[in-house]
Design brief:
The protein has 433 residues and is an alpha/beta fold. The protein has twelve helices and 20 strands. The chain has two domains: 1-324, ANL, N-terminal domain (Rossmann fold, 3-Layer(aba) Sandwich), CATH 3.40.50.12780; 327-428, 2-Layer Sandwich (GMP Synthetase, Chain A, domain 3), CATH 3.30.300. Bound molecules: adenosine-5'-diphosphate and zinc ion.
Length: 433
Amino acid sequence: MDERYWNRAFETMPRSDLESLQLSRINSALARAARSQHYRKRLPDRLENLEDVKTLPFTVKQDLRDGFPDGFLCVPLEDIVRLHSSSGTTGKATVVYHTRGDIDNWSELVARSMYMTGVRKGDVFQNMMGYGLFTGGLGLHYGSEKLGSLTIPASSGNSKRQIKLMQDFGTTAIHTTPSYALHLYTIFEEEGIDPRQDLKLKVAFLGAEPYTGETRKKIESLYGIRAFNSYGLSEMNGPGVAFECEEQNGMHLWEDSYLLEIIDPATGEVLEDGHEGELVLTTLQREGMPIIRYRTGDIATVYTGTCLCGRTHRRISRIKGRSDDMLIIKGVNIYPMQVEKVLMDIPEIGHNYLIEIENVEYLDTMKIKVEVVQEIFHGNIGELESLKRRIVEELKNEILIRPQVILVEPNSLPKSEGKASRVVDHREKSPRP
Ligand code: ADP
Ligand code: ZN
């Protein structure tokens, strides 16, 4: 018999039991946290009910930087078996320490997440995320071994070798960023290999950077697989915080391990489910380095209603971006994901794009370079022009301003093996009135 759940008791726990568990776990977390330099004297001894979490102070990235390296450590350093450090895309790096128990819990959440998408013992999992300080490599690796699937620590980059590994070992599941999945497809094309026909791929876990539902659909159809959204951040271990189930309708956030809140980023006020805001997370189980009410900067919504899969943990939407990703152009607020949403829905568009913002004569301008597919790029010039007009119109409808669109050759824009950078903002350097 194939059991549907990796850990039925926890995954389908009735909400009231889950909330009692959270209350007892937050109280243990507070007791542990109080042993750190940072939280000492900042926290109450215990909470009477979960609602009172609102009275606890937030923790922000700057606190972690200020506490570098061991201001948040709660156990003797000799009890720590691993550290991970953030890739530092938004500033100075931070460190997170894990005890053996922390690594076990984290692996449990990852195994649970992978199992939820249908991966089983007997599957071959190729982990194409970078191994090292970044959590996407080792995080999924330990979870996958715990689940019992054959784990290939491919790490990132070296596309031809990735393809060879898939062929040699019959890879059925992969883990990568959405931007790398799109890039890798162009190498498949160059090599004349059709991943739909010539491989055993079934599923992909895509995460580490924001992307849209349209991008997911595109990757699913290019590879003939199902792609699942995976969310995590190094401060909360890494991947395995929230993951999509087979319904592919929001990511279950593992509430036995994390306390979930959404706040208004401007006021800090806690919002009801269904309202968009900044995700705030608390580690409920971490021993080495508990973090209380961490402001992730990630913008999302908590879905209301229950999921057909039977899991009781609430779901979050796709991450719209970080609160600091938002661009203000001619006074209009724009998230890069709104641009991606439009682009990835147009079949003539290739796999990469770049947004460039400039300030010319005191006016903000938005230029979007878009790769188009080979046949179109070398095809009829009239067709190219009308494609461009269509893209501009559709973007205008979504973002309310009219960007300049430049169609470029496939594979001509810079690509990254880690997180993609989609925006170059030249404005900081331009003279201001
Ligand atoms: P850094 O903060 O240096 O980039 P991390 O590797 O911890 O280091 O990155 C975590 C961040 O990556 C998250 O806070 C979020 O912004 C982004 N992220 C991770 N997974 C996803 C996802 N599935 N969708 C959108 N963004 C994601
Ligand atoms: Zn579900």
